[in-house]
Write a structure and sequence with these properties.
With about 110 residues, this protein is α+β, with helices and mostly antiparallel strands. The chain has one domain: Ribulose 1,5 Bisphosphate Carboxylase/Oxygenase. The chain is built from 2 helices and 4 strands. Strands 2-1-3-4 form a 4-stranded antiparallel β-sheet. Strand 3 and strand 4 form a beta hairpin. The longest helix has 14 residues. The chain is globular and about 45 Å long. InterPro entries: RuBisCO_ssu, RuBisCO_ssu_dom, RuBisCO_ssu_sf. It comes from Amazonocrinis nigriterrae CENA67. Heterohexadecamer of 8 large and 8 small subunits. One of its GO terms (cellular component) is carboxysome. It is found in: Bacterial microcompartment; Carboxysome.
Length: about 110
């Protein structure tokens, strides 16, 4: 039996290998299909003690397609390639973030 290396992982899906663009698109489609509002955030670290990530632009209130969100993810990747980038889904009824997952890790890791 093989055990996982000892490291902290706290984000949704963090125990899986990095998601492909197709897998990211499916997760974003889920966010949209649930009526959640997608947003993109970035930060230099992914430490669980860092509660505040920087918001990339405003939440994508009017996003209707997966491609719109993916275009913003790519724009954030190109500008902040040395940062962690995650997609979050906000529930406008509960007024809170209901899910998040990392879509980009810096190449140093």
């Amino acid at each position: 039996m093989q055990t996982l290396p000892k490291e902290r992982r706290y984000e949704t899906l963090s125990y899986l290998p990095a998601l492909s663009d197709a897998q990211i698109a499916k997760q974003i489609q889920y966010i949209l299909s649930q009526g959640y509002i997608p947003a993109i955030e970035f930060n230099e670290t992914s430490e669980p003690t860092d509660y505040y990530w920087t918001l990339w632009k405003l939440p994508l209130f009017g996003a209707k397609s997966t491609q719109e969100v993916l275009n913003e993810v790519q724009a954030c990747r190109s500008q902040y390639s040395n940062n962690y980038i995650r997609v979050v889904g906000f529930d406008n009824i509960k007024q809170c973030q209901v899910l998040s997952f990392i879509v980009h890790k810096p190449s140093r890791y």
